[in-house]
Amino acid sequence: MVKVLITVQTYSGYKADERPRSFTLVNRRFEVREILDQWQGEDHTYFKLFADDGNLYIIKHEKEADEWEMVMMEAVEKP
Q: What are the residue boundaries of the structural domains of the chain, listed by start?
C-alpha cells in the first residue's frame, strides 16, 4: 500500500494539532466542513470528516513523525 501524504492546517487549542481545519492534496485545498468521528491509536489519531467538495475522508496523523496521511476518500452521491 502506498502512503498518500497530505499537508494539513490544524486548530490548536489546549494541545497542538487538536483537529484538522483544511488539507491540501495534489495542489488542491479542501476545507473541513464537519468532523464526524475521531479515534486514537497508540501513536496516531484518525479523523473521519466531510470536506467542502461534499466527499467523505479519513485522514491519519502520525504523532511521532508529525505526518498526515490520506487513508480513505469516498465520493458521496449527490441527488
A: 4-74
